[in-house]
From TrEMBL:
NCBIfam families: RND_mfp
PANTHER family to which the protein is assigned, alphabetical: HLYD FAMILY SECRETION PROTEIN, MULTIDRUG RESISTANCE PROTEIN MDTA
Cellular component, GO, one term: efflux pump complex
Name of the molecule in the record: RND family efflux transporter MFP subunit
GO molecular function list: efflux transmembrane transporter activity
Domain CusB-like beta-barrel: 219-288
């Protein structure tokens, strides 16, 4: 993610400030010999109030441009081949079905998931109706508060079960669709390694598709991205060597084996005018993912709330922030899990709640356990 490098480039030098502070301390020491020692008032700090939520997820990954010649294709699910629709040397069009797996088991899974969803919705409706009926009785003082609390808990549990069941239906639908292997772009079938009635495993190459023209970009996708990347997914790309050029592309290949570190190879087929593109160029590919059924909110905080010393050197997905405790007026160190870097803000996946107040400036002079006050601008104090 480059948080440490970003912080190194954007952290102001503090050497002069340190000299100034040392001089101030010396003067203060002299004053203490002449005057009665007075208590140092709590430091007023600039802070950021957590509240802005991230809409979906954006990941930018750097890759290398390659000639658009060969792409390995594989199923995303296991199964037995029921139909092979192309042979070696065939010309295929974009989205053309190349082969199919027997969908019987996946249809059964979808039917089962749908039945569970229907049952969950029925229980949700019953719980809601029972709660409303007893709330009316409670208003007439005919039932106890404990009864209402119990029914509310049951209604909440029913709502959660519906959400879980909906997720299962969506996953079952995706798996059923994945029994059909489609061409991500137009080209020629270079190799074919499967036959009808053959059992295949997800990720095993079954076709090699050769593109007619153009370029592709090979990028290393983090393990956390893999569940959300799909064949044909639209992405955008830019090229440092060609300022101002931005091209759309589609995911054409998804690797099944780890390469460098814990990343998986993903290839993107470029579209549009590629006349200024050359093989070997560096490219930045941006993936955008929707936040479907996101259970926990992801918040945005300014990068200034992070300091280089508080970023985990071994895994820069984790860092520490200084959280203000309103009950004690003390700063507390809170470990957070970081997401994507967006301009001067960064996503926080875990560790903070809406309304939390964190120090956002002067971090080199702040520490956990320090008593502080929250600095408010004059316009806010007058309200």
């Amino acid at each position: 993610m480059g948080f440490i490098r970003f912080l190194q480039q954007n952290t102001l030098p503090i050497k002069r400030s340190g000299i100034a502070l040392a001089a101030a301390a010396l003067i203060a020491g002299c004053s203490e010999q002449l005057e009665t020692q007075q208590a140092v008032p709590p430091k007023a700090i600039k802070y950021f109030s957590v509240g802005e939520e991230s809409s979906g997820s954006v990941r930018k990954v750097t890759g290398i441009v390659e000639p658009s010649d060969k792409t390995d294709l594989s199923f995303r699910v296991d199964g037995k081949v029921s139909n092979v629709l192309v042979k070696q040397g065939d010309l295929v069009s974009k989205d053309q079905v190349l082969a199919e797996l027997d969908p019987k088991d996946y249809r059964t899974s979808l039917s089962s998931a749908q039945a569970q969803l229907n049952q969950a919705r029925a229980e949700q409706q019953n719980s809601s109706s029972e709660l409303k009926r007893n709330q009316q009785l409670f208003a007439k003082k005919l039932v106890a508060q404990a009864t209402i609390d119990k029914l509310q808990a049951a209604a909440d549990a029913a709502n959660s079960q519906v959400k879980v069941a909906e997720d299962r239906v969506q996953e079952a639908n995706r798996n059923l669709e994945r029994t059909k292997l489609r061409a991500p772009f137009a080209g020629t079938i270079n190799t074919r390694t499967l036959e009808p009635f053959q059992s295949v495993q997800s990720g095993n190459t079954v076709f090699q598709l050769q593109g007619d023209t153009g370029f592709k970009i090979k990028v290393p996708a983090a393990e956390s991205m893999m569940p959300y990347i799909e064949y044909g997914q639209l992405v955008s790309s830019d090229f440092p060597a060609v300022p101002g050029l931005s091209l759309e592309g589609q995911v054409s290949s998804i690797g099944s084996q780890v390469e460098a570190g814990s990343s998986f190879p993903v290839k993107v087929q470029l579209s549009g005018d590629t006349s200024n593109i050359r093989a070997g160029m560096t490219a930045n590919v941006t993936f955008s993912f929707r936040a479907e059924n996101q259970e926990t909110p992801i918040y945005m905080i300014p990068v200034s709330a992070l300091s280089e010393s508080n970023v985990n050197k071994d895994d820069n997905r984790f860092a520490g922030v200084l959280l203000f405790n309103p009950e004690t007026s003390l700063l507390e160190k809170r470990e957070i899990e970081l997401g994507d870097l967006r301009d001067n803000s960064v996503e926080v996946i875990k560790g903070l709640n809406k309304g939390d107040k964190i120090a956002s400036a002067g971090l080199p002079f702040l520490f956990a356990g320090q008593e502080v006050t929250l600095w408010e601008p004059e316009w806010r104090q007058e309200q």
